[in-house]
Amino acid sequence: EVQLVESGGGLVKPGGSLRLSCAASGFTFSNAWMSWVRQAPGKGLEWVGRVRSKTDGETTEYTVPVKGRFTISRDDSKSTLYLEMNSLKTEDTGVYYCTTRYCTGGSCYSWIWGQGTLVTVSS
Amino acid sequence: DIQMTQSPSSLSASVGDRVTITCRASQGISNSLAWLQQKPGKAPKSLIYDASTFQGGVPSKFSGSGSGTDFTLTISSLQPEDFATYYCLQYNTYPYTFGQGTKLEIK
Lengths: 123, 107
Description:
The complex is a heterodimer. By secondary structure, chain A is mainly β. Chain A is built from no helices and 11 strands. Chains A and B meet through strand 5 and strand 10 of A and strand 5 and strand 10 of B.
């Protein structure tokens, strides 16, 4: 079964740090371009950033509000994606989802989503 | 960034109705569009990708169409479990962007 499972969310004070993880299974993680998406309470979905596969350079891209504060990385040996969040602000509060497009045999199909992990930034 | 304008932002309908939600891209995105369903407190669930291809296990009551800049999601014969928020997502050009969502409510 194709699955993404996030963990690591919690309550943190403004200016603090948090590291989220996303464990993948059921597909070839090392080939996947992985992304983080977030959703503030009562709001819509926002793309946070992505990391390419190692084959494609393992480069990263971020949305402007998080650039310089958030870092996306991956450990293909553990099939795990990470989101390191520093200098957290109250506006970073929300549910964080990892996602990827399921690709196999040279074709790509639908988007897979984890269940999300809640990050609350508050004093 | 490509802007995705989704309409309506909310929609009230009855069980058994057929509804249509639209998404317009600020520039052409070919067919690189997905439709997602989200219920309160739950993760998004993919319904359709590549504008018109069903996600496995999704009922055929959901259908998508369009290419370029204009896309539609049609849900036929609404059932209670279909009342949720729907989002479009363009993945043609990074940064990928979402529509603002359509909240489908029971009349």
